[in-house]
Specification:
Number of helices: 6
Radius of gyration: 16 Å
Helix content: 25-40%
Largest sheet: 10 strands, mixed
Distance between the termini: 52 Å
Strand content: 15-25%
Shape: globular
Structural class: alpha/beta
Number of strands: 10
């Protein structure tokens, strides 16, 4: 397989990438944190391919990225109080919320009853998400290796294994998102990232 690097700044390349996703292919693209590798959220075969390409343990669920708040309806059936507050306060941005998983999502995405969901703050990512719809997205690197912050770094690790890399330059964040479990009575941080505990606490009251 030949991996194509396309400029993320051209509208027609976003359409090409969205079409590739709809054909069951994998696409890497920039976000506000690190480069992500995506598949359509309702395509079990493509989601399984994410695990294979990354050598990702099957026990690790894959988060979902959305392009607009209305897309939450296809991902979760219940957004609790704190999840809504955090989404309103920090989306789009580097915050992943763990919420109850919609039963309509493929089991290949998550064997658990929960799913992580985020809206990235990156124009190319949002254009792709709004063109293709919600995507199952994991970091665009081999499991256990460094996160990819540029298209070249994605190519070094995944070249020949995926169809398209959208080149949006270096990712501005460079750090994976903060992950917060919002399924209990009180939210708690599962992974510390750009959004701090202090920031989360500031909007909870």
């Amino acid at each position: 397989m030949k991996t194509k690097i396309l400029s993320a700044r051209q509208p027609h390349t976003i359409k090409l990438a969205a079409h590739a996703l709809m054909q069951g292919e994998l696409v890497a693209f920039p976000t506000d944190t690190v480069y992500g590798l995506g598949a359509l959220v309702d395509d079990p075969r493509a989601i399984r391919q994410l695990y294979i390409v990354k050598s990702r343990p099957a026990s690790k669920a894959i988060p979902v990225l959305i392009g607009k708040p209305a897309d939450l309806e296809s991902v979760t059936f219940q957004m609790g109080k704190y999840a809504r507050i955090f989404a309103d306060s920090f989306w789009p941005g580097p915050l992943t919320l763990v919420v109850p998983r919609s039963p309509d999502l493929p089991d290949a995405l998550s064997a658990a009853a929960t799913i992580g969901v985020r809206m990235p703050d990156h124009p190319a990512a949002l254009r792709l998400l709004n063109s293709a719809g919600p995507l199952a997205v994991t970091s665009a690197n081999l499991s256990g290796k460094s996160n990819a912050l540029s298209a070249g770094e994605v190519l070094d690790q995944l070249g020949g294994k995926i169809t398209i890399i959208l080149d949006g330059g270096k990712c501005p964040g460079g750090m994976p998102s903060t992950v917060v479990d919002c399924t209990g009575a009180q939210p708690h941080i599962l992974r510390q990232g750009p959004i701090s505990l202090e920031q989360l606490n500031s909007v909870m009251n």
